Amino acid sequence: MSTAFLLLGGRVIDPSTGRDETADVLIADGLVVAISATRGELTAPAGGRVIDCEGKLVVPGLIDPHVHLREPGADDKETIASGAAAAISGGFTSVCCMPNTTPAIDLPSTVEFVQMRANASQKARVFVTGAATVGRAGEQLAPMGAMAQVGAVAFSDDGDCVASAGMMGKVLAVCASLDKVFMQHCQDPTLTVGGAMNAGVVSARLGLGGWPGVAEEVIIERDVRLNRGHRARYHVQHLSTAGSVEIVRRARAQQQPITAEASPHHLLLTEEMCTGYNTQAKVNPPLRCDSDIHAIIEGIIDATITILATDHAPHTSAEKARDFSSAPFGMIGLECALPLYIKALVESGAISWARLIALMTIEPARLLGIDGRGLGQLVPGLSSDVTVIDPTVEWTIDAEQFKSKSRNCPFDGWKVKGRASNVFVGGRCLLIRDGVASAVRSSSQSARLDVV
Ligand code: DOR
Ligand code: ZN
């Protein structure tokens, strides 16, 4: 039996119901039991624990729809257990992992392997994205129906684009029939041969291969057109250019079933970060320009972009120590995304707290079709995945302290504000940060500080 928790006096924000008020939240037996804005109305049952949430935000558990957990095949970079632990540390109660493992997640048995490892870790919930094509090679359809049957929530060849229009049409048809979202890594590979960073003056100065924004844009444009006949749910992963925002905006205005996600690095870093051949700044799609950042933020403000992800992509220090052209693409994000999004979007005044929470809870839950399981919302009778955020705590990002096995974080050393202080998954308390952020006491005694 899990312990009951009474979260006292926090600002409870649940965009799925429009709730935004100071209230107490009682969770027990894996469910939200009650939420009350009347002080003192709720009491914890005997043996329950009380957490003082004054000055904190109490929100649905955060959901990251785009992470790389590297298992099977590269558990020196990350395991499902270390990635799921990193998620909890960053405030995420659910993550959705990508199929670019070795072997690729392109069979029901591999989906089940990941689910088994995730369950054994007892950390964040891990949902699985199956590959759309066998081996992610883009040539033959993977058994998507069979993978969906064992629980794959989405399909993608992420890491690579489904580049052939013929294959893409087939994938969209299958996804439409299964009512599963297809998440496209938008990159026309014929336009990025030899590319290591954004094509422009900085790549020219550094003598590095350029990767133009149009490589992303032509794929989105093509897929929107292809999808007119299928009307599959189509999602743009890690959108990086102003042109892409424009295409998605137009398609949404025409009622196309298209969504898009942003990543922290595409909101806060530009191509200048690659100066000095800094491989921590090497990512796919590449860091772009200020004008792209502004357009992506505009896209978030006007709800062209409705989802925030991390694209958490762990790599070893040895690999990142290679020269820029041969180092791998990617950066980790699970343990710093929340304050980075707060900085880029809330501190800047672009959007409200409630909107930020929507982009990190109910919106990704709907994308993955897991809202029906009660995730991404804070409603009595539904699942009690809860994140408590301290919006005022100031801290310095220190990758050495991360639960992730990897350290490839370009934000290392940044001073940021805001952090998850408590995280509950299915009613189990999996994070109490330092005992500083929250006092936890047994409801029958008053003063005793306790760590669960
Ligand atoms: O930078 C990236 N790294 N982009 C991707 O699409 C894949 C990812 C990885 O798996 O390392
Ligand atoms: Zn990708």
Key terms:
452 residues; alpha/beta; Urease, subunit C, domain 1; TIM Barrel; 9-stranded mixed β-sheet; 8-stranded parallel β-sheet; 19 strands; globular; disordered C terminus; binds (4S)-2,6-dioxohexahydropyrimidine-4-carboxylic acid; binds zinc ion
Detailed description of the structure:
By secondary structure, this protein is an alpha/beta fold. The protein folds into two domains: 5-58 and 384-442, Urease, subunit C, domain 1; 61-373, Metal-dependent hydrolases (TIM Barrel, Alpha-Beta Barrel), CATH 3.20.20. Helices cover 27% and strands 23% of the residues. The protein contains 13 helices and 19 strands. It has helices spanning 80-90, 108-121, 144-149, 165-178, 201-206, 214-226, 242-253, 265-268, 290-301, 317-320, 337-347, 353-360, 362-368, and strands at 5-14, 19-28, 31-36, 49-52, 57-60, 62-67, 92-97, 125-130, 154-155, 181-184, 197-198, 210-211, 234-236, 258-262, 307-308, 386-396, 415-425, 428-432, 440-442. The strands form three sheets. Strands 1, 2, 3, 4, 5, 16, 17, 18 and 19 form a nine-stranded mixed beta sheet that branches. It has an eight-stranded parallel beta sheet with strand order 6-7-8-9-10-13-14-15, with helices on both faces. α1 (80-90) packs across α2 and α7 packs parallel to α9 (290-301). It is globular. 54% of the residues are buried. Mean pLDDT is 95; it is low at 445-452. The structure holds (4S)-2,6-dioxohexahydropyrimidine-4-carboxylic acid and zinc ion. (4S)-2,6-dioxohexahydropyrimidine-4-carboxylic acid binds at residues 68, 100, 158-159, 185, 283-284, 311, 313, 328-330. Residues 158-159, 185, 237-238 line the site of zinc ion (ZN).
